[in-house]
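Side project, low priority. Logging it here so it doesn't get lost.
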Amino acid sequence: MSTPEVEVRRSKRRRRTVSAYREGDRIVVLIPAAMSKRDEAQWVADMVARLERKEKRTRPSDEQLLARARTLNDTYFGGLATPSSVRWVTNQQQRWGSCSPGDRSIRLSERLQGMPPWVVDYVLVHELAHLLEHGHDAAFWAWVDRYPRAERARGYLLGWSAAAKVDPPSSETEDEVD
């Protein structure tokens, strides 16, 4: 794994606490303004390691994605939309996920890694629905909307796109996930 870009932000209002979060491809570490350079280096290393450990726990493997997709298939599609494979990909910057109905494979953008599991589940449900309905017509959305958090997940993805200052994959009525 490559070393992430780290931005340290000092705050005069912050007295003792240190925190870190991911902002796009970089990790932001918030520290008190009065912290020494030596302490800063130690805290930055510690906080980056903590954040990466946390993210690793929230990034399922391809095998775990496939198992999750099969569970979602059973729950929301009655077993009708069984995928042959599900995997993370690095080459999807314009889509959250994609599906090839011919070979029943699903690919998810690595940008979803670290997002809440219910958001990843929504994208999986969206792609599973494509195994039954190829377009984005009313029948397709009827399948997707069986997922109880569908609307909330769509909002989350739109909000994430706005916060990251990137265009969402496309409009909701056309092809929001694909």
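Brief comment: The chain has a mean pLDDT of 89.
Revisit when time allows.
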